[in-house]
UniProtKB/TrEMBL annotation:
The chain crosses the membrane at residues 35-55, 67-84, 96-114, 121-145, 165-184. InterPro entries: GDT1-like (IPR001727). It holds the Pfam family GDT1. This is GDT1 family protein. One of its GO terms (molecular function) is metal ion transmembrane transporter activity. Belongs to the GDT1 family. GO terms for cellular component: membrane. It comes from the Bacteria. It is found in: Membrane. It is a multi-pass membrane protein. The keyword Nucleotide-binding does not apply.
Length: 192
């Protein structure tokens, strides 16, 4: 249950103000069909984050447990600091309308997630919890929780949220997870 809830919270908060929210807004503005877009977001995220969670869980078996704990702690702190940096002004094109709403949204969302903060976070969560299913479901639910309102409420929704403060809260959560992992490993090494 910890893996699921932590994954939902971490990715849901990290996604606020992310480029994929802007992509969601672009897609709904262009196609005005939220359900196929939501379905595409869900499918693309399940595949992308499923592979990431699996890779994270596999890393834990390949690397010494203590070294992995230190790496995870440092990586969580790194992601927390990365969240403080707003996304750049990438241009995300919706593609030609003739391709189909689902297909266009699926491909664009899948590609936008590659190397994204939430994909890296999913990999780290997979390594920390070694529960691929719970992490994948949690990060997908977090992604949907952050992007579904954008589909129905559009730009007004994004303008009213204190996006910068939500990014800071997500940053704090990741930094705290990292510090906790580092302190836990320091405790284990020293035999406290």
């Amino acid at each position: 249950m910890d893996a699921l809830l932590t994954s939902i919270l971490a990715v849901g908060l990290a996604e606020i103000g992310d480029k994929t929210q802007l992509l969601t807004l672009l897609l709904v503005a262009r196609y005005r069909r939220p359900w196929p877009i939501l379905t595409a977001i869900c499918g693309a995220t399940l595949i992308n984050h499923g592979v990431s969670a699996w890779l994270g869980a596999e890393l834990i078996t390949l690397i010494d447990e203590r070294l992995m704990s230190l790496l995870l702690g440092a990586a969580f702190v790194g992601v927390g600091l990365w969240l403080l940096k707003p996304d750049g002004e990438e241009t995300l094109e919706a593609g030609p309308p003739g391709r189909g709403v689902f297909f266009t949204a699926f491909v664009l969302f899948f590609l936008a997630e590659i190397g994204d903060k939430t994909q890296i976070a999913t990999l780290l969560l997979g390594a920390q919890f070694a529960d691929v299913l719970a992490v994948t479901v949690g990060t997908t639910l977090g992604m949907l929780a952050a992007n579904a309102p954008v589909l129905w409420l559009g730009q007004r929704f994004c303008q009213r949220l204190p996006v910068r403060w939500i990014q800071r809260l997500a940053s704090l959560i990741f930094i705290m997870l990292g510090i906790w992992a580092l302190l836990f490993e320091a405790h284990a090494l020293s035999g406290w």
